[in-house]
Hints:
By secondary structure, this protein is an alpha/beta fold. The protein has helices at residues 17-21, 40-55, 70-82, 100-107, 117-120, 126-136, 149-160, 177-185, 202-210, 234-247, 256-268, 293-300; strands spanning 11-13, 25-30, 60-65, 85-91, 111-115, 140-141, 168-173, 190-195, 217-221, 277-282. It has a six-stranded mixed β-sheet. Strands 5-4-3-6 form a four-stranded parallel β-sheet. α2 (40-55) packs across α7. It binds pyridoxal-5'-phosphate. Pyridoxal-5'-phosphate binds at residues 40-42, 70, 145, 172-179, 252, 255-256, 283-285. Pyridoxal-5'-phosphate (PLP) binds next to α2, β7 and α8.
Amino acid sequence: MHLPLQLPSPLQLLPLPAAAERRVEVWLKREDLIHPLLSGNKWRKLKYNLLAAKEQGASSILTFGGAWSNHIHATAAAGRLSGLNTIGIIRGEMPKQWSSTLEFAREQGMQLHFISRESYRQKENPEFIQQLRQSFGDFYLVPEGGNNEPGVKGSAEIAEEIQMPYDYLCTACGTGATLAGLARSAQGKKLMGFSALKAGDFLMDTVLRYAPEAAPELKIISDYSLGGYAKTTPALMAYIVEFHRRYAIRLDPVYTGKMMMGLEDLICRDYFAPGSVIVALHTGGLQGISGFPDLHKALFAR
Ligand SMILES: *Cc1c(COP(=O)(O)O)cnc(C)c1O
């Protein structure tokens, strides 16, 4: 696979006034710049899955996601770029009006198949997977969100790329696969996982499942999930618009916006000792902003 990827992803000092006042440094690792269509941690989680699919001689990969899924978007693009057919099993009945994510996936050649929310819950049931094989022929399966061993392995490479000394490594979390990868490779660092879901306790289980020997210093923070997955507040939207105005960097309201708002709040509360160096991942996800039309207008207006 010869994809034009910007790797290692750039590290950029973020001049947050609240950080400078406290002699704390915040660096953003710009995973969002890896590739215009295949950005962020979704590329990390797909990398070894694509290689395994090729090694096994699979011609198709099948995966799962919702109508605005960053993972569906990335898988569709990755399949197209690497010459693999893609099948997307989408949660919920086919909508009358397709999201831009689904339109994009279809344009990339992904075969989309809509199932009820009830059936979707079977997505890890072997019998259900067997039924899918009968319907779609043989395929390489990538679980929802790229949450599997190859996904964790790819995520571990993020921390391996960081060449400078630092103390804290922060990421937004959905399934926790990215955090588990960091737990493997960022030994001796303090990890902070900002949950995009209301109750992020399961994230610790994910880390322990994939990185049982790592025993990292790890904190799961659910205080900034703002009521749950993809829930937003006017304050969050204003924060993202202001962040873009200050730094010309776009954040998304599901993952990176909540993480940065949380991180800045913790800095203001003197959570970090003077001299601390923090690396925060910009995990991408910008395609999903289309699901928030007012924010999209504010961030992409010329
Ligand atoms: C999917 C996603 C995450 C969460 O990654 P997990 O490995 O599922 O925890 C974080 N940020 C963005 C932008 C994402 O798209």
